[in-house]
Amino acid sequence: MTSPGVQDAADVLKRVFGYDSFRPGQQEIVDHVVAGGDALVLMPTGGGKSLCYQIPALVRPGVGVVISPLIALMQDQVDALRALGVRAAFLNSTQSPAERRDVEQAFVSGDLDLLYLAPERLQLDGTTRLFDQGKVALFAIDEAHCVSQWGHDFRKDYLLLSALHERWPEVPRIALTATATEATHAEITERLGLGEARHFVASFDRPNIQYRIVPKNSPQKQLLDLLRTEHKGDAAIVYCLSRASVERTAEFLVANGVPAVPYHAGLDARVRAENQARFLREDGLTVVATIAFGMGIDKPDVRLVAHLDLPKSIEGYYQETGRAGRDGLPSTAWMAYGLNDVVQQRKMINGSDGDLAFRRQQTIHLDAMLALCETVTCRRSQLLAYFGQGGAAECGNCDTCLTPPESWDGTIAAQKLLSAVYRLKNERNQKFGAGQIIDVLLGKETEKVRQYRHDQLTVFGVGAELSEPEWRGVVRQLLAQGLLGVEGDYGTLVLTEASGEVLGRRREVRMRREPARAAKPARSAKSGGTAVDLPEEAKPLFERLRAWRAATAKELGLPAYVIFHDATLREFANRRPTSLADLAGVSGVGENKLSKYGEQIIEVVAQEVAEEG
Ligand code: ADP
Ligand code: ZN
User: Fold this and answer.
1) Which of 185, 299, 307, 452 is deepest in the core (most CB within 10 A)?
2) What is the pTM of this model?
3) Ligand 1 mean position to 300 CA, how many Å?
């Protein structure tokens, strides 16, 4: 247990968490809150927000109260802290009255360092009385974007948080979020009354994540390939748009020998909780999910986040991909993207019940997402620019940096395609989707072509210079650039105002040519894979340590990463510690874990050495 009394933040960082240095931004925030200041912290997922309130809570007298919307994850959060020797507990509706009384007792008598609280408990008079009876070191407001009424994570009870300051003005507040846009920032500031607080906006770059967006051919197979090669044995999150495709994809993976579980809002609550728990606890499981999955999942060793469908906004995409590689080790954010994604999403927006303003907003989001997919420049610098952090150099760790796509002058191709759309429509005002238009351009004598006598048109067969996939790429990019539109339930293609500029030769169209083979960076590049860039001779020990960790985690009923992170095991595997003093120097080994697991690690290392002879 941590000793009471005044402690220095750097000392707590080392002794309790076992880390040698703060990550960028952490120290300033910690110092500010320790000194009693209010703070609003914008930091990307995996940036290390938790320490920013956990350390001040340990340093300041009293109990740090953490408001967190994620009841299902409180147990894990508290377990992880206890494994470090921190006195942590939670209060929420899942507990019996007796359990809650015990926690309240500990709070009042000052036997707690951190107390996690569900926001709805702020409504209760009992909570106010409780805070008055004990000493609160600080209020931490986690996932602070939940106060934003327009975001999809809105929680009504978060509006109650503004009262905290009026009631306990001397207690510092620290609000944290990974949502970076200006609008959310402003809304959090206003609703939580943080105008006077210091605002800390960290860099949103996540340099260890490799961003890749590939043409979608057969997405399930492409995914399987990734999970069998680069990410064999890794933990992965796969996002799909619909529940049905979640189910199908999970089944497909299992049938092909990749351990996977589904997660979506349509599943029975028990099954959902169980699948989430398995994902957190087991090594190397894939969860296939809708975007209902992920907030607050702080599993540090997710090596791959895959999108099989186009996300609706860059905000969403960045939050989701940010769940990869929180531990700072190389990880992959991979997306398969194709023509149908664009058609689907444009259709969804057109057919939505929202008013014009809403649809316009959705279109802006989609266009930004499409621009990211079609870019011929660095994906990362484009992402950062979106969050107002422009001016980044080429990153060297995204697919466009690693295998730069060529761009080509697609003006003539665009003109041919747009004329075909125009001609086909003119014929009896029928409208057609991409398939028929491409068949006509390629001069294919299909039944449907003959039925509508499209073989009689002047555009029939004028597009033989491109292949079918290439034409699909043309359609996709014209849609992405707004030079072509889509209408109705069947995704029929229509001209837009801007189409006229291309047809009238007043506008040139640049297009992206996909690299012949989709970027698959060499394994030696910074791409993922848990054991990938370990020296060959360290791998057997790493695997042995992982097996020890899995067994220990199972025995204690804890997620494996709560015992030690991969990064820490890797360092053990490299250094082969033979004494407790050796071990204490490794990042991630605090006092508590040293005394609990130190001897066992030395034993595992000794076994490996003996076996290697
Ligand atoms: P966030 O909440 O911002 O997504 P977390 O607080 O969960 O991020 O931190 C991400 C991971 O980084 C955690 O596993 C945490 O233990 C680790 N971490 C945080 N700060 C440091 C540090 N100073 N040194 C090493 N690891 C750190
Ligand atoms: Zn790049």
Assistant:
1) 307
2) 0.85
3) 8
